[in-house]
Amino acid sequence: MFFLNTDFQRFLPSIRNLPDSDLLEKKDLLNEHFLIGKADGLEVYYAPHNEFINCHAEIVIVGITPGWTQMEAAFRQAKLSLQKGDSLEQVLLESKRAASFTGAMRKNLIEMLDECGVNTAFSLSSSRLLFGECRRLLHTTSIIKYPVFIEGKNYTGHAPKIHQSALLTHYAHNVFPKELHEIETDFLLVPLGKVVSEVMTDLVYKGMIPEKRCLFGFPHPSGANGHRKKQFHKAKAELKAIVERFVDERELF
């Protein structure tokens, strides 16, 4: 395992000073103590969970940017772990576990992964195990590493588009590829939704990530994506074929 703690160390005092609460409020986190970038109506805030990188992951699942729900869960867990006296590495790991695609989104994600054969590819009864006892196989992240908000609302990848913002482009085209290069295995890459796939397609064109291991066409698992099932049905055959080729190539080495 590997983790980056430069930014985490900087924000440690502010994390320790967060209120002891079962649920943090936006005023606790969306403030000057955690603001790390601002431009064109966009605000980027720190969150600890994407600092932890699983260098031995065999599957990498990528969202657009952490939303408020993930951000709140990550900070709340970090505060709790620090109070317990956990090591900094353990704090970041527990924050990652707490914030990775929680709730209905995780359920939808697991169902689609299983339907296109990901569980079989890794000899699992269900992809649900990736979020539990087989977590060692999984790395979750975002093309924009930290939470992004517009007027206090989650950034969704539109208005502005990522390539229209120098701030967002920096994270998507510089920070994100460097994170992937820290992973030492030949991993399966799962971009969640059209926005992520568009960024990854550009990175493939630039030779920064390998195309053959990307599940392009995988829908975003959010319940807000009302076209999720239709999108998945349309892409399912090709997604299964990519997974099968991934398995065949692994077996050759």
Automatic annotation (TrEMBL):
Superkingdom: Bacteria
Name of the protein in question: Uracil DNA glycosylase superfamily protein
